[in-house]
Design brief:
Helix content: 40-55%
Structural class: alpha+beta
Number of strands: 9
Mean pLDDT: 94
Order of helices and strands: HEEEHEEHHHHEEEEHHHHH
Length: about 325
């Protein structure tokens, strides 16, 4: 039985028993993400449920319930909210299964899994409409990019940007944000990656979507194809990107008419995300005492290097990264 912030084991056990109408036979911790939320799989006689304990940030439950409804209304396999204690931040959820895409992709041929995930993404994006989710606007995109100089460069690398480097960075950040805002805007999961997808017979289960926004059409594609914990060859991810592009066009989503323009948008959007993630991972290590995420920094630096090689207009970023990493250990 878990201990929860501000609640005794007895209190949460009583709440679960009351809502489920049965005793829990076994509490199984589920490895969580970088957030304060905690998860347990609850084993009952004949079924399982998932307890999401968001007692550290109960306000996150309302967006979770909203986005779950948006996903489910178009046939995406998001967990049904079975019970919700709004004051405490406890949710009893449908259990979509134990096997993550990350586990499956490390053991199985990836094409069918990735194509199913992209098909699911298109289904949700095709239902997009403005004014429903928070806007992934200029201020939000710029604030995310600021994590890179603030946490990865200053705190992790121990360097301050010179005036010339700051000028280069400011111009790059503005260009990346402008490019993102120029894309078609759709529903964005914001962390649509293998760890947040579950293998299911009727298609992938989707979880961890409470931070969803209304933003650039390529963002979730970049999240999936440039994953934080598993990578594939560039030619394979390009083929998957074109699979998505064709499916999106068939669904009436306004992606660029030419595939090469779509792939450029994908690289630019990915660059914004990679820089943001490096900043987040550095903050997790140096502020939150969670160093394991920053072990993936070489993967994201590799993604950036590949995008820079493909896109000449990103060359200033390549030069800046080379200067920042000169004679500095990234461990």
């Amino acid at each position: 039985m878990p201990a929860t912030a501000g609640a005794s084991d007895t209190e949460i056990d009583q709440w679960v028993r009351c809502e489920a109408g049965a005793d829990v036979l076994h509490w199984q911790p589920i490895p969580g993400d970088a957030s304060p939320r905690r998860y347990h799989r609850l084993v009952f006689d004949g079924c399982t449920r998932v307890l999401m304990d968001a007692s550290a940030e109960p306000a996150s439950c309302a967006p979770f319930a909203q986005v779950a409804a948006l996903l489910r209304e178009v046939g995406v396999h998001a967990p049904e909210v079975l019970a919700w204690e709004q004051t405490r931040g406890w949710m009893l959820l449908e259990d979509l299964g134990e096997r993550s895409y990350l586990e499956a992709l490390r053991r199985e041929p990836p094409d069918a899994l990735i194509e199913a995930a992209l098909t699911t993404l298109v289904r949700w994006q095709a239902s997009s409409r403005p004014g429903v989710l928070p806007a992934y606007d200029r201020a939000r995109l710029a604030a995310e990019l600021a994590l890179f100089p603030d946490w990865y460069v200053a705190r992790h690398l121990g360097r301050a940007l010179t005036p010339a480097q700051r000028q280069t960075w400011d111009a790059l950040a503005d260009a990346l944000v402008t490019a993102a805002l120029a894309q078609t805007q759709v529903f964005v999961h914001r962390d649509f990656m293998a760890r947040n997808l579950l293998v299911g017979a009727a298609g992938p289960g989707v979880i961890d979507f409470q931070d969803a926004v209304y933003g650039p059409v390529t963002y979730d594609v970049a999240s999936l194809l440039r994953d934080a914990f598993i990578s594939w060859p560039d030619d394979q991810t390009e083929a998957w990107g074109l699979f998505y592009w064709e499916a999106a066009r068939r669904a009436g989503i306004a992606v660029p008419a030419r595939p090469e323009d779509f792939l450029r948008d994908l690289d630019w959007m990915g660059t914004q995300r990679h820089l943001k993630v490096l900043g987040i991972f550095a903050r997790l290590k140096h502020r939150d005492g969670k160093p394991r995420y920053l072990e993936e920094a070489p993967r994201f630096l590799g993604y950036l290097d590949a995008a820079i090689r493909r896109r000449g207009d990103l060359a200033p970023l390549g030069a800046l990264l080379a200067e920042l990493h000169a004679d500095v250990s990234t461990a």
